[in-house]
Amino acid sequence: MKILVTAKRVEDPESKIKVKPDGSGIVPEGLKYKINPFDEIAVEEALRLSAAHTGDVVVVSIGTKDVHEQLRHALAMGATKAVWVNHTGALDQLAIARLLQKVVEKEKPDLVILGKQSIDDDQNQVGQYLAEFLGWSQATFASKVEALDSDAEKNKQPGLKLTADKKGLTVVREVDGGLSTLECSLPAVVTTDLRLNQPRYASLPGIMKAKSKPIEELTPAALAVDVAPKLTVTKLSSPPARKAGIKVADVPALVEKLKNEAKAF
Amino acid sequence: MNSGFGVFQEEHEAFRRTVKQVVDRELKPFVRAWEEAEEFPLALYRRFAELGFLGLKYPEAYGGTDAGYLYEAVLHEELAKCGSGGVAAGLAAQFTIGTGPIHLFGTDAQKRAFLAPAIAGQKIGAFGVTEPDAGSDVAGLRTTARREGDYYVVNGAKTYITNGVRCDYVILAVKTAPEKGHKGVSLLIVEKGTQGFTVAKKLKKLGWRASDTAELHFEDCRVPVTNLLGDENNGFFQIMGNFAWERLSLALGAVGAAEDILEQAMRFTRERQAFGQAVAKFQVVRHRLAEMATDLECARQLTYHALKLHAAGEYALAQTAMAKKVATEMCCRLADQALQLHGGAGYMQEFDIERHWRDARLGPIGGGTSEIMNEIIAKQLGL
Question: Is this prediction's ipTM beyond 0.85?
Answer without folding.
Answer: no
